[in-house]
Amino acid sequence: MRIISLAPATTEMLFALGLDKEIIAVSQFSDYPPQAINKPSVGTFSDPNVEMIIALKPDIIFCTGLEQMPVVNKLRQLNFKVQVSDPANFSELFSSIKKMGELTDKRQEAEVLVEKMRLAIDVIKRKVLQSHLEKQPKVYIEIWHSPLMTAGSGSFVDEIISIVGGINIAHDSFRPYVNFTSEQVIKGNPDHIVMAYMDKEDVTRIAAKRPGWGSISAIKNGKVYNDINSDLFLRPGPRLIDGLNEIYKKFYEQPN
Known about the structure:
Elements: E1 3-5, H1 8-16, E2 23-26, H2 34-37, H3 50-56, E3 60-63, H4 69-77, E4 82-84, H5 90-103, H6 107-130, E5 138-145, E6 148-151, H7 156-163, E7 167-168, E8 177-179, H8 182-188, E9 192-195, H9 203-209, H10 217-220, E10 224-225, H11 231-234, H12 240-252
Parallel strand pairs: 1-2, 1-3, 3-4, 5-7, 5-9, 9-10
Antiparallel strand pairs: 5-6, 6-8
C-alpha cells in the first residue's frame, strides 16, 4: 500500500500503527516521529503540491478538515481515495484511529493503540480522584498572544483540562478556538496558565508584565508554564496522552 499523509496529526497516527514503510510522502511540518522528517514532502499543509501527489500514485491519502477541504475535494475529483480525519475529542480520535486501521489493514494495531490510550486516561482520572481536591483549579491555556487566543469547549484542550480535574476559564466560549481579552483572563483568575508557544523573551515574564495580570493567582503563585511541547496538547494524535501527563504533573507534582 502506498500512503500519503497531508497532516502532521495523521502522520503521527500512521506511524503509531506501524506504517513507516507504506508512507511514501508527507506534508511540511510532519516532524514526529523523527523518521517522518526523512519522508519526501509534497508541500505545505494548506497548499500541497497536487502534481507531485499525482506522480506518486498513492493508494490512499490521509488529510484533516477545515482549510484542507479544497484540496480534499480536488483530489477526490481526480479519483483518489481520500480519508479525512478531523477529530474534536478523544472519542472521535479513537474512531479515527480505528478507521485508519481498517483502511490500512492494521485493525489489531489500532485496537491496541486505542485501548492503551483509554487506559492511560483512566489512570490520570483515578489519580485526580485520589488527590481529594478542595476545589477544582481554574486553567487558562494561551495559544497565541497577539491577539490573545485560547481554546474553548469542543477542543481537545478543554477536554484535557477536564480530565486533569480543572476548569477551563474559556469553556463557556462554546467554540474550539477563540480570541480572548485580558479582561476575561483577569476576571477568570486562573490558578494555572499554560503558554503554548515560545518567544524571544520568556513568555512567563511577558504575562506577568501585562496590565492587571499581577492579581491573577497563577502569576502570584508562579504557576505559569511554557515548557510543555504544544504539539502534545494541540495536535490530535497519540501523543495527546503525553500532553495529558505533562499537564497533570505541572498541576499536581510541582512544589507549592
